[in-house]
Automatic annotation (TrEMBL):
UniProt keyword terms in alphabetical order: ATP-binding, Helicase, Hydrolase, Nucleotide-binding
GO biological processes: maturation of 5.8S rRNA
Domain of life: Eukaryota
InterPro entries: P-loop_NTPase, RNA-DNA_Helicase
Organism: Opisthorchis viverrini
Protein name: Uncharacterized protein
Length: 63
């Protein structure tokens, strides 16, 4: 399913983050938004999250 693909891409990408960074609110909340097909991309996001959004958008998994 698309949600499973979003989960896989997200989880693979955040593996590079430290445990502390994984607890950041933006990391904790972004997956639930992405699973609904919604992408958020702005200057305050950490770079890996922006990259995830760009990948998912390119694959047509989010708008």
């Amino acid at each position: 399913t698309e949600k499973a693909e979003v989960d896989q891409i997200f989880n693979d990408a955040i593996d590079v983050l430290s445990a502390e960074d994984k607890r950041l609110p933006q990391v904790q909340t972004l997956l639930s938004v992405l699973r609904r097909g919604i992408g958020i991309h702005h200057g305050d996001l950490i770079p890996i999250l922006k990259e995830i959004v760009e990948i998912l958008f390119t694959k047509g998994l989010i708008k």
